[in-house]
Amino acid sequence: MFKHLFILIWNKKKQNFLLLTEVLISFIVLFAVFTLLVFYYRNYKTPRGFDYQQVWVATYTNNFNIHDSDSLHQFYESLRNAIQAMPQVVSVAFVSSNTPYSNNMQMNGLQYQKRQLRSVNSYIVENSYLPTLQLQLLEGQWFSPADAAARKTPLVIDQTLREELFGNGPAIGQLVGDDNQQQIIGVVQDPKFNNDYSLTGKAMFSAPDTGSIRSLSRALVRVAPGADAALEGRLYKLMANTMKNANIQIEHLDEKRNSANNFALLPMIILAVVCGFLIINVALGLFGVLWYNINKRRGEIGLRRAVGATGSSIAWQLVAESLLLATLALLVGVFFAIQFPLLHVFDLAATTYLWGLLFAIVFIYVLVLVCSLYPGKQAAAIYPAVALHED
Amino acid sequence: MISLTNIEKVYRTDTIETLALNSISLDIAKGEFLSIMGPSGCGKSTLLNIMGLLDTPTRGQVQIADQPTQHLNDKQLAHFRNKKIGFIFQSYHLINDLKVLDNVELPLLYRHSAAKERRLLATAALEKVGLSNRIRHFPTQLSGGQKQRVAIARAIVGQPEIILADEPTGNLDSAMGHEIMDILLTLNKTEGTTIIMVTHDEIMARKTHRLVRLFDGTQVQ
Ligand SMILES: Nc1ncnc2c1ncn2[C@@H]1O[C@H](COP(=O)(O)OP(=O)(O)OP(=O)(O)O)[C@@H](O)[C@H]1O
Ligand SMILES: [Mg+2]
């Protein structure tokens, strides 16, 4: 019977071409959407790597008139102590502008032996950054005052960069950078700084030195639960008084996270809506074509009944034909889809594609099944004596 | 072979009620070649459909091969038709998307015969109707007479005891019609197949063993 159906479909390939194309195109779209959803979901499930709650970020313009870096160090130290001394402040760290959920990025290259890595997120952070954001230290240690005596510049990297540089080999103590001027002292868990649905990727952290101290332009402040607008006001006043002409803006990381997440979700929602309309369209199209085919094939259905088909075997045949057609379209579709992981078209894990593929296949089959069940049932109800009488 | 007792068939639509058959009783012996004649709309096709278990009578009993049929379910009816009855129609009812051979194999498909056996039986049936050289053609590539011979091959491929033919020569010219008639006569003579044929052609009807005339749903001869 399977072969019989295959012959039937094959001999009608011209009529079926449109339906095949329709299924193929919807499969490709579904594959893209599901792959993206799986990608987002997996990112969402990845640990955040830091804690955004009870953290404020104070942005200031850092064009103050302090020219030598030692004075700048002292300036920051006294301001830090003053903020730290405020009640309800747990810890504070001055950092470069690429704070969590800020949309700011600073990418640098990193040399390791003969390899030049590109696009490594580079964060200039003070020692108190780790407790303030509660990053998770996985190996080695974080910066400490003792680093001042170190002969090489200490560097902390994230897990992704660690794997890219050293694989499973040891990381702590390795020398990197131009002329091996930097030394890895610690590895932290990957922080998801952009939003909950995307990964930040390779990242390295270094303490401000005489040059990079000028790029500090944010203060991250961890506050105690219950910290309120009064504290915010006093913090603002303290910074404004200390920094004279600077513009100061205080924001809360949890709010910034919400808007970053919403912003990330927006394209997904639009895509889902568009995809939903597409699916409704395809479903109606499929349903219409199957319905039309059945009415065109009343004579054939009557004849099959006459030579020994039961009503249910007629229904089964029509459903099986649709599923077989879908399978043909899917074979072509899977051939194209499988090229994405094979050719590494985008930087996605192969399993993400495979899940996307699986979901798209299941969805197509369910769609085709649902769309052919009712026409199949109608076909089963065709009265053979009447159908045979018609032409 | 077939025994009809007080068959009555009423078609009901929203507005009218048609009495298509009115207390028909008929006994058809095994190996008999019976023809049915009558004006258009008198109920010939209806009667044939009832004999072929494609339709159920409003009243009365149908016995085929000494077996009452009114209690058979859909599956049993389908099985019965498949095993015992071959159908031939005025408009052939071939599936245009299947080659001649696949068309002829169709009844065997619902019998779950093996592919090899199907091929063998279908080829033999096509040989009997003189179409061995057309098995790879599609129905649209055949003449009317050839199509009807394919339909006959399909009707006999499962070696049924009964063949029901509804105006098998109705769409054919007289030469073609006689050719088809000869095939049916041979089949009746050599294999002993019981044949019931509806026809409008007196000459064809005279070649059969017995003639039944219907008028307005009632048997008049
Ligand atoms: N499905 C149906 N619903 C309602 N009435 C029907 C149906 N089928 C047949 N009839 C009516 O039953 C009567 C007998 O029809 P039938 O088809 O048996 O005639 P027939 O003798 O085969 O005619 P013809 O020689 O034109 O083929 C007709 O009056 C017809 O209108
Ligand atoms: Mg008729």
From TrEMBL, chain A:
<feature type="transmembrane region" description="Helical">
    <location>
        <begin position="314"/>
        <end position="340"/>
    </location>
</feature>
<keyword id="KW-0472">Membrane</keyword>
<keyword id="KW-1133">Transmembrane helix</keyword>
<dbReference type="GO" id="GO:0005886">
    <property type="term" value="C:plasma membrane"/>
</dbReference>
<feature type="transmembrane region" description="Helical">
    <location>
        <begin position="352"/>
        <end position="374"/>
    </location>
</feature>
<dbReference type="Pfam" id="PF02687">
    <property type="entry name" value="FtsX"/>
</dbReference>
<feature type="transmembrane region" description="Helical">
    <location>
        <begin position="17"/>
        <end position="41"/>
    </location>
</feature>
<comment type="similarity">
    <text>Belongs to the ABC-4 integral membrane protein family.</text>
</comment>
<feature type="domain" description="ABC3 transporter permease C-terminal">
    <location>
        <begin position="274"/>
        <end position="384"/>
    </location>
</feature>
<keyword id="KW-0812">Transmembrane</keyword>
<dbReference type="InterPro" id="IPR003838">
    <property type="entry name" value="ABC3_permease_C"/>
</dbReference>
<feature type="domain" description="MacB-like periplasmic core">
    <location>
        <begin position="71"/>
        <end position="230"/>
    </location>
</feature>
<dbReference type="InterPro" id="IPR025857">
    <property type="entry name" value="MacB_PCD"/>
</dbReference>
<keyword id="KW-1003">Cell membrane</keyword>
<dbReference type="InterPro" id="IPR050250">
    <property type="entry name" value="Macrolide_Exporter_MacB"/>
</dbReference>
<dbReference type="Pfam" id="PF12704">
    <property type="entry name" value="MacB_PCD"/>
</dbReference>
<feature type="transmembrane region" description="Helical">
    <location>
        <begin position="265"/>
        <end position="293"/>
    </location>
</feature>
<protein>
    <submittedName>
        <fullName>Putative ABC transport system permease protein</fullName>
    </submittedName>
</protein>
<dbReference type="GO" id="GO:0022857">
    <property type="term" value="F:transmembrane transporter activity"/>
</dbReference>
UniProtKB/TrEMBL annotation, chain B:
<keyword id="KW-0067">ATP-binding</keyword>
<dbReference type="Pfam" id="PF00005">
    <property type="entry name" value="ABC_tran"/>
</dbReference>
<dbReference type="GO" id="GO:0005524">
    <property type="term" value="F:ATP binding"/>
</dbReference>
<dbReference type="InterPro" id="IPR017871">
    <property type="entry name" value="ABC_transporter-like_CS"/>
</dbReference>
<dbReference type="GO" id="GO:0098796">
    <property type="term" value="C:membrane protein complex"/>
</dbReference>
<keyword id="KW-1278">Translocase</keyword>
<dbReference type="InterPro" id="IPR017911">
    <property type="entry name" value="MacB-like_ATP-bd"/>
</dbReference>
<comment type="similarity">
    <text>Belongs to the ABC transporter superfamily. Macrolide exporter (TC 3.A.1.122) family.</text>
</comment>
<keyword id="KW-0547">Nucleotide-binding</keyword>
<dbReference type="GO" id="GO:0022857">
    <property type="term" value="F:transmembrane transporter activity"/>
</dbReference>
<dbReference type="InterPro" id="IPR003593">
    <property type="entry name" value="AAA+_ATPase"/>
</dbReference>
<dbReference type="InterPro" id="IPR003439">
    <property type="entry name" value="ABC_transporter-like_ATP-bd"/>
</dbReference>
<protein>
    <submittedName>
        <fullName>Putative ABC transport system ATP-binding protein</fullName>
    </submittedName>
</protein>
<feature type="domain" description="ABC transporter">
    <location>
        <begin position="2"/>
        <end position="220"/>
    </location>
</feature>
<dbReference type="GO" id="GO:0016887">
    <property type="term" value="F:ATP hydrolysis activity"/>
</dbReference>
<dbReference type="InterPro" id="IPR027417">
    <property type="entry name" value="P-loop_NTPase"/>
</dbReference>
<keyword id="KW-0813">Transport</keyword>
